[in-house]
Design goal:
186 residues, mainly alpha, 2 domains, 12 helices, 0% strand
């Protein structure tokens, strides 16, 4: 790994090619080949470690996969590693992650990964905590609309992770109204 990281400029294009191939296969509903692709896994990790911004749009595509394809092609990686992949490749800019999180059609697990990516930016000091809280306060009413699909549990979780007392009344109201699901209780 150290050797690969030392030669990152020479390796970025082949790694991006491996990731592009993986994304193309993951998007193709006819492709149900064995998912086991260590090269693509390593490419995702190394490109994130190199903070390669050209990987971000490819990660975005993977976030938008239908949930059953995402489970097959990414498995636990979506919730465990994707937040850091997204945060590492967005150049410290929360705007693309915010736009992605606000997409009504984004699958629930992908939304959690994106929100965790935003939380990672806060933890790294790239995005002020108060700005994330303000964004969540603005977003919360839109996510409670009758036609909204996101699970408010993700927002309640962010309220806890950010220790944002100003979000807790909204989270409690969502649970009381039955508009939030999940194992959390606030």
């Amino acid at each position: 790994m150290r050797e690969a990281f030392a030669q990152q400029d020479a390796l970025k294009e082949p790694l991006l090619d491996a990731l592009r191939d993986f994304v193309a296969r993951a998007r193709d509903p006819a492709d149900i080949d064995d998912r086991g692709d260590m090269l693509a896994d390593m490419a995702m990790y190394l490109l994130a470690q190199c903070r390669e911004p050209r990987a971000f749009p490819l990660y975005e595509v993977l976030c938008r996969l239908p949930e059953e394809r995402s489970d097959y092609w990414l498995g636990d990686m979506l919730l465990q590693d994707f937040p850091s992949f997204l945060a590492s490749t967005c150049e410290g800019n929360p705007a693309p992650l915010q736009r992605l999180a606000e997409e009504q059609s984004l699958p629930l697990h992908a939304r959690w990964a994106v929100l965790d990516g935003l939380l990672t930016l806060v933890a790294q000091g790239a995005w002020p905590r108060r700005d994330m809280i303000a964004w969540l306060l603005e977003l919360w009413p839109r996510w409670q609309a009758p036609d909204a699909t996101p699970d408010l549990t993700a927002l309640a979780s962010m309220a806890c992770d950010l220790a944002a007392a100003e979000l807790l009344p909204l989270a409690r109201a969502a649970y009381a109204a039955g508009t939030s699901t999940g194992a959390m209780s606030i």
